[in-house]
Specification:
By secondary structure, the protein is α+β, with helices and mostly antiparallel strands. 29% of the residues lie in helices and 19% in strands. Strand 20 and strand 21 form a beta hairpin. It comes from Toxocara canis (Canine roundworm).
Length: 743
C-alpha cells in the first residue's frame, strides 16, 4: 500500500481471488463498507487516498469504496474486497464516473500458475487459503484463563496498547485481581492498565504437547533430541473439538517454525476425527418444530404427536437442547453400567462415522460382557481353590501331584514339544509383528516371485508366505529392470497388510533398482515412466532396500520360475471356482450401467429426490423397499424388448401381490384356452412411452395397442395366466364385461 504522497506503508492489502490470472490485467480494487480501510460518512463511490501496487504489472491500483452490492459470480467479495472486472457493465460505469480506465493498455496472457509463482517469488502470498476465514477472537472474559500480556492506555480518547517487556513477564493474575495501574514509559501518562480478558482455553491446550516430550527440561521449551520425534503421527479426537483445537495448534506451530523453535510447520501428521453422537429427533412436518420423544406415539409405521395427532418424522441429528433429543448420561450409566455404555459407543459405528444412539444391540453386548465376566470369575475361583490346597496332607498332595504330572506330560507337554519342533523346522512360521520383516522378490522371463520372511531371535530367517504369478504377454516384453521393478511392487502390494505402517527390508538381486527405489526424498527424474510410477507407489511404505547376489537369492528365484497358472489374485480365482461348481452366476455390477458421468449423476439425483418425496411413507427400510421394488419392476427402454431389471436378472417376471388374483371359471369363454387377453380402456394412453408395470399380475406385459373401435380409447393389454388351464390357445376378449369376473 501507498499513501497519498506516494510513500510505501508498512501494510499489505489482503486480497483473495478465485482466479489469480485476473490480477494480471486488473486496474482497480473495489471494497465495501465493512473493510478496515473504508472511511465513514463519505459519498459513494469514493476513491481512497491509499493505492495498492499490482505485483504483476507493477502499476498502482486505486481503491474504490462502493455500495454494498448483492452477491453474484462477477461480484464475489472475500474480506469485503474484490478486483474490478472490466467485463461487468456496472464496474465499468463506476470506473468511468470516477475517471478510471479498467481496460489495460497492454494485456498480459498469464495463467493462474504464472501469477502464483510471481506472488511466491516476491513473498506476496500466492497460496491457497479459506474464503471464509476472517479475524477471530481469542480472548474470553474470564479470570482463570491464560493472561494476555498487553497494557492498555488509561486515556479512552487515544487508545494505545503495548506488550509487556520481558522483565515484566509472566503477567500472572493475583488473588485480588489485576493491579489497576502499571508503570509504562511507552504509554501516554506513563501508566497503563493490564488487559483483563484471558485467552481461550483452546489456545491454552494448543502448545503444551511439546512439553509432554520433555517435561523436566527447565532451560528449553523442548530439547533437540526430543524434538526429533515430532510431528505427532496421529491425532484422535472428536470432530468438532479437534477442529478448533487443531486450528490453534497449527497456528502456534507455524509461529514456532518461523522463530526457529521447531523444524516442521504441521504439528500433526494425520487426523482421525471421531463421529459425533446423534440422538433420535422428532420433527413436525407442518410447522417444523421439534417434539420431545415423550410426546410422540407410534401408529403403524408412522409417528404422531399425542396432543393433536400431527404427523411427525423421525431422524437422527446432533444432540441439542433445542432439538430435544438429548440423553441423560446418569440414567444410562445407572441402567446399563459404565462398561456396557462404553462398549455400546465402540460397537455402534466406525471411528469416523457418526453414532446413532440407541441403534446398538444391547442384548448381544450384554451377553458378551456376561461371558467375559464368567471367564474372569472362574479364573479367580480356581486360583482361590489352588491357594487352599496348602492344607491337604503331604501324602495326598504328593499322589495328586504325580497324577497331574502324568496327565500334564501326556496332554500338554508332549504335544507342545512336538509343535515346538515343527516350529523350529524349515516350514513356514506364523506372522509376528514384533519380529523384523524381510520381503524379497525376483523376476524371470515368464513370471515373478515373492516371499515375506521373519528374522528370528536366534538370527535365522524363516518364511511367512510365498507368492508368484505369470507375466502377461505385455509384461513379457518389459526390459529386465522393469520386470525386476514389477516384482518388487507386486511383493509389497501382495503383502501390504503385513508391511504397511511397519519398517521392513526389501531385497533384490538387481543393483540398479537401489538408486530408483531407495531414494526417499524424491523419485529420480531419469527413471522410466513405468519405474517412476512404481517408485512413487512405494513411497507410501517404510522400507530399506538392499542388494543380494543371485546365488544367495534362491527362495525367490525359484518362485519366479514355479509360477501360478492363474494371473489374477488367488482369492478371485478360488471364488470363481466355487461359483462354477455350485452353479452360481457371478454378477460384478448392477444391471443398469450408466454410459457417462452425467447419467450416473442423474441416477443419483433421481434416487435422492425419490427418497425425499417418500420420507412420509414409513421408515428408511420401507422406503428402500418401495424404491427398489419400483426400479426392479419398471421396464427399461435400454434393455432388449423393454424388459424389467428383474426379468433380466431372474429370467422371469417379478412376483407381486397381484399374483394372488385368480380367474373365476364361469367367466372363461372357452375351457380349453390357457391365456386370457383382457382389454382395459385407459384414458389418454398416449402419455405412456413404455408399458406400465402398475397393477400387473402373473405373466408378461403386453404392448400398447390402439383399439379398432374408433370411439374406444387406447388400451393396455395384459396377459393373465391361470393355473388350471394348460392349453396354449389364446382367446381375445374385447368385451369389458369379462374384466368384472376377476375375483
Amino acid at each position: 500500500l501507498k499513501n497519498a504522497y506516494g510513500a510505501v506503508l508498512d501494510e499489505t492489502f489482503d486480497l483473495r481471488i478465485r482466479e489469480p490470472n485476473r490480477l494480471a490485467n486488473a486496474r482497480a480494487i473495489f471494497i465495501r463498507s465493512g473493510h478496515s480501510l473504508a472511511p465513514s460518512a463519505v459519498e459513494l463511490p469514493y476513491v481512497l487516498e491509499e493505492t495498492a501496487m499490482n505485483i504483476v504489472r507493477g502499476e498502482e491500483m486505486p481503491i474504490i469504496l462502493v455500495h454494498d452490492e448483492e452477491r453474484s459470480p462477477e461480484k464475489e467479495y472475500y474480506l469485503n474486497a474484490r478486483l474490478a472486472f472490466e467485463g461487468n457493465d456496472s464496474d465499468l460505469a463506476i470506473a468511468r464516473s470516477l475517471g478510471i480506465e479498467l481496460k489495460p493498455s497492454r494485456r498480459l496472457a498469464l495463467s493462474n500458475e504464472d501469477v502464483l509463482q510471481i506472488a511466491q517469488f516476491g513473498n506476496y502470498g500466492g497460496y491457497e487459503t479459506s474464503e471464509r476465514l476472517l479475524d477471530w477472537v481469542v480472548s474470553r472474559q474470564r479470570r482463570w484463563g491464560t493472561p494476555i500480556p498487553v497494557l492498555l492506555s488509561e486515556d479512552d480518547e487515544h487508545e494505545h496498547a503495548v506488550c509487556l517487556s520481558d522483565e515484566q513477564l509472566p503477567a500472572l493474575p493475583v488473588s485480588s485481581g489485576h493491579p489497576q495501574r502499571v508503570p509504562c514509559d511507552r504509554l501516554p501518562g506513563g501508566f497503563g492498565v493490564p488487559e483483563k480478558d484471558t485467552l481461550d482455553t483452546f489456545f491454552d491446550s494448543s502448545w503444551y504437547y511439546l512439553r509432554y516430550l520433555d517435561p523436566n527440561n527447565e532451560k528449553q521449551l523442548i530439547g533437540a533430541d526430543k524434538l526429533a520425534q515430532m510431528p505427532v503421527d496421529v491425532y484422535v479426537g472428536g470432530i468438532e473439538h479437534a477442529a478448533v483445537h487443531m486450528f490453534f495448534a497449527r497456528f502456534i506451530s507455524y509461529f514456532l517454525k518461523d522463530i526457529g523453535v521447531v523444524a516442521s510447520s504441521e504439528p500433526f501428521g494425520r487426523l482421525l476425527p471421531q463421529g459425533i453422537v446423534r440422538g433420535r429427533t422428532f420433527l413436525r412436518t407442518d410447522n417444523g418444530k421439534y417434539v420431545p420423544e415423550t410426546d410422540v406415539v407410534q401408529k403403524g409405521s408412522s409417528f404422531v404427536e399425542k396432543c393433536d395427532g400431527g404427523e411427525v418424522i423421525v431422524q437422527y441429528e446432533k444432540m441439542s437442547k433445542s432439538k430435544r433429543n438429548g440423553v441423560e448420561p446418569l440414567l444410562i450409566l445407572n441402567r446399563d453400567g459404565i462398561d456396557l455404555t462404553r462398549l455400546q459407543l465402540l460397537d455402534t459405528a466406525a471411528p469416523r462415522a457418526p453414532i446413532n444412539w440407541g441403534d446398538a444391540d444391547v442384548k448381544g453386548l450384554k451377553k458378551w460382557l456376561d461371558r467375559v465376566s464368567w471367564v474372569v470369575n472362574e479364573y479367580v475361583t480356581q486360583r482361590s481353590v489352588c491357594a487352599s490346597c496348602a492344607s491337604i496332607p503331604a501324602e495326598v498332595d504328593h499322589a495328586t501331584e504325580e497324577r497331574y504330572r502324568e496327565v500334564y506330560n501326556y496332554a500338554v507337554r508332549n504335544p507342545f514339544q512336538e509343535l515346538e519342533s515343527i516350529h523350529q523346522s524349515d516350514l513356514l512360521t506364523h506372522y509376528d509383528p514384533k519380529l523384523s520383516i524381510i520381503v524379497a522378490a525376483d523376476a524371470s522371463e515368464y513370471g515373478i516371485g515373492a516371499v515375506i520372511q521373519h528374522r528370528m531371535p536366534n538370527g535365522s530367517v524363516k518364511a511367512v508366505a510365498h507368492a508368484s504369478r505369470a507375466l502377461t504377454a505385455a509384461e513379457q516384453n518389459y526390459s529386465q529392470i522393469e520386470k525386476e521393478g514389477l516384482a518388487l511392487t507386486y511383493a509389497v502390494t501382495k503383502f501390504r497388510k503385513m508391511v504397511f505402517g511397519r519398517h521392513f527390508t526389501l531385497l533384490t538381486d538387481y543393483r540398479p533398482l537401489l538408486g530408483i527405489f531407495g531414494s526417499k526424498e524424491d523419485v529420480p527424474k531419469h527413471a522410466a515412466k513405468r519405474l517412476h510410477r512404481w517408485a512413487t507407489l512405494l513411497l507410501a511404505y517404510d522400507f530399506t532396500i538392499e542388494y543380494r547376489k543371485t546365488s544367495d537369492f534362491g527362495q525367490t528365484d525359484a518362485l519366479s520360475s514355479l509360477i501360478s497358472k492363474q494371473r489374477k489374485p488367488e482369492d478371485y480365482y478360488f471364488n470363481v471356482l466355487f461359483c462354477i461348481s455350485n452353479g452360481i452366476c457371478y454378477t460384478f455390477c448392477p444391471l443398469y450401467r450408466p454410459q457417462s458421468n452425467g447419467q450416473a449423476e442423474r441416477f443419483v439425483d433421481t434416487f435422492k429426490r425419490t427418497i425425499l418425496k417418500l420420507r412420509r411413507e414409513g421408515s428408511v427400510s420401507e422406503i428402500m423397499d418401495i424404491f427398489l421394488r419400483t426400479y426392479r419392476t419398471t421396464p427399461n427402454a435400454f434393455l432388449a424388448e423393454h424388459r424389467t431389471p428383474a426379468e433380466l436378472f431372474l429370467d422371469r417376471p417379478p412376483r407381486t401381490s397381484l399374483d394372488l388374483l385368480k380367474f373365476h371359471r364361469s367367466s372363461l369363454p372357452n375351457a380349453n384356452s390357457s391365456l386370457i387377453a383382457v382389454t382395459v380402456p385407459v384414458p389418454d394412453s398416449s402419455r405412456f412411452s413404455t408399458p406400465s408395470t402398475h397393477g400387473i399380475a402373473k405373466g408378461k406385459i403386453g404392448d400398447l395397442e390402439k383399439s379398432r373401435n374408433e370411439s374406444a380409447a387406447s388400451c393396455i393389454k395384459y396377459r393373465w395366466q391361470t393355473e388350471q388351464l394348460r392349453d396354449s390357445t389364446s382367446v381375445s376378449c374385447a368385451n369389458a364385461s369379462h374384466s368384472k369376473s376377476l375375483c
